[in-house]
From TrEMBL:
This is Glutamate--tRNA ligase. Catalyzes the attachment of glutamate to tRNA(Glu) in a two-step reaction: glutamate is first activated by ATP to form Glu-AMP and then transferred to the acceptor end of tRNA(Glu). The gene is gltX. It is found in: Cytoplasm. It comes from Tenacibaculum geojense. It catalyses: tRNA(Glu) + L-glutamate + ATP = L-glutamyl-tRNA(Glu) + AMP + diphosphate. A motif ('HIGH' region) lies at residues 11-21. ATP binds at K263. PANTHER family: GLUTAMATE--TRNA LIGASE, GLUTAMATE--TRNA LIGASE, MITOCHONDRIAL-RELATED.
């Protein structure tokens, strides 16, 4: 790509960032990095009624956690700043005025009540009221009223909005990098408000002006903005500016494959929809986050990358660097991407396996401390090596390894019924004697002696090994028994067997 790639993520700070928003940020980030471009964060806070104070920081923290920080944005390399639209509000009016002067926009004085009456009137006749070419000459605006009347109303302080004058009888032909050519009849569009009576621009005007001033080369955003694309393309035309390229990402669908994934689906189906936990400052409601639920950021990001994109190969595990190398808008699909909580867990499991025992030990030690266990780091590292393949989260480690640190506090009843027979206690007593003969209690020695003894008794291995497992672990689970025995040591092994004999009589 010869041009200078500049993309932006432009969230509105109305609450916590949904995972779909993180996916949009990620695709922008990947595209920027792939083309040695710039990833801009712009805060679109023109709608003061929906503004939530802690949302901007939440967005920034989420990008940081995902390791996809912005290059330019609030407080960082403010080359084209400010990056909060509320701090740019003085700037937009001149652009609304410019469009009026060029005949691409007009003043409209219709009150909310009047518009409502029109809407109701139309509904009563089975029609939909659209403010556009069809009726604009009959409404209260500068296209219908005389210049004097308009000037007088403005001088009198009457409230007005500025509307876009959508061209009539044109077929607008647009290009989307993902969807290809899109054609639309301009007569179906309404004359959108560009500038509100409170002196603030609407999303449409502010978005286009800022994308232009910030020299954005590609607009990569969610499919929900596709209906706005005709207006945006027309606005560039009206200003005489070169439009950026557009790419509308597919929707993220519910796990059932139908309907957009909503914030409520997470609560209903038991998975997070936000990257980080979020506390609503008004209600004190806490929403779960992937981070706090124990997901690795790399796993979350890898999973998100596959929501609407695929590399065209069998490879599924991609580091961020590999994603940057492989990412391509051409491989982003048009159709919705089904979110799968199970696949997300699978990604986490894969990333957990890729982590070194040393790294995982660092994560496990604080959990052990919480349990009141003060274990040697080398010992914990060995434990982690033995159990990690069965874990999806670090939080699973305790269930998989508690017996390395403390004696079982109970025994699985079903297993006891099945495995602890009348003759078992005698066998276990004999086993204790056998174990006591092993001087150097290594895996090899323990294995040779114990297996030799079982063979000499001509009984099945299970008759000894299953009750032994129950004695040491409390249930029929866990890694190799000889690993467990040598880790906890001869003395503890013997103690646990005698405990079991006493308790399971
Ligand atoms: N502020 C819009 C949002 O909240 C930005 C849409 C766009 O990227 O143009 O998603």
């Amino acid at each position: 790509m010869s041009e200078n790639v500049r993309v932006r993520f432009a969230p509105s700070p109305t609450g916590p960032l949904h995972m779909g928003g993180v996916r949009t940020a990620l695709f922008n980030y990947l595209f920027a990095k792939k083309h040695n471009g710039t990833f801009v964060l712009r805060i679109e806070d023109t709608d003061q009624t929906r503004y939530v104070a802690n949302a901007e920081q939440y967005i920034i923290n989420s990008l940081d956690w995902c390791n996809i920080p912005f290059d330019e944005g609030p407080g960082k390399n403010e080359k084209f700043g400010p990056y909060r639209q509320s701090e740019r509000k003085e700037l937009y009016k001149q652009y609304a005025d410019e469009l009026i002067a060029k005949g691409w926009a007009y003043y409209a004085f219709d009150t909310a009540e009047e518009l409502d009456a029109h809407r109701k009137d139309h509904e009563a006749n089975g029609k939909t009221f659209i403010y556009n070419w069809h009726n604009r000459e009959k409404l209260q605006n500068s296209l219908a009223l005389s210049a004097e009347n308009v000037a007088q109303r403005i001088a009198d302080g009457e409230k007005f909005v500025v509307r876009f004058k959508t061209p009539q009888d044109e077929t607008l032909i647009m290009q989307d990098e993902i969807r290809g050519t899109i054609k639309i009849d301009t007569n179906t569009l309404d004359d959108k408000v560009l500038f509100k009576s409170d002196g603030m621009p609407t999303y449409h005007l502010a978005n286009i002006v800022d994308d232009h001033l910030m020299q954005i080369s590609h607009v990569i955003r969610g499919e929900e903005w596709l209906p706005s694309m005709p207006l945006h393309v027309l606005l560039y035309k009206a200003f005489g500016w070169e439009a950026p390229k557009f790419a509308h990402l597919p929707l993220i669908l519910k796990p059932v494959g139908k309907g957009k994934l909503s914030k409520r689906d997470g609560d209903k189906l038991g998975f997070p929809v936000f990257p980080l936990a979020y506390t609503n400052e008004d209600t004190n409601d806490v929403s779960r986050g992937y981070k706090e639920d124990g997901y690795f950021a790399e796993a979350f990001v890898n999973m998100l990358a596959f929501l609407g994109w695929n590399p065209g190969t069998e490879q599924e595990i991609f580091s961020l660097e590999e994603l940057i190398q492989s990412f391509d808008l051409e491989r982003v699909s048009k159709s919705g991407a089904k979110f799968s909580p199970d696949k997300t867990k699978w990604f986490n499991q894969q990333y957990l396996q890729l982590k070194s025992a040393e790294e995982l030990t660092k994560l496990y030690l604080p959990l052990l401390t919480e349990k009141g266990i003060n274990a040697d780091e080398n010992y914990v590292q060995k434990v982690v090596t033995l159990i990690k393949e069965r874990a999806v989260f670090v939080a699973d480690f305790w269930d998989l390894s508690s017996f390395f640190f403390e004696n079982p506090s109970s025994y699985d009843e079903k297993a006891v019924k099945k495995q602890w027979k009348d003759t078992t206690a005698d066998l276990m007593n004999e086993l204790v004697a056998v174990i006591n003969t092993i001087e150097d209690f290594t895996v090899d020695n323990a294995q040779t002696v114990i297996k030799g003894w079982i063979t000499s008794k001509e009984i099945g291995f299970g008759k000894v090994m299953q009750p032994l497992r129950l004695s040491l672990v409390g249930k029929l689970a866990g890694p190799d028994l000889f690993d467990i025995m040598t880790m906890i040591g001869k003395e503890t092994t013997v103690k646990r067997i005698t405990n079991a004999i006493e308790n399971l009589l």
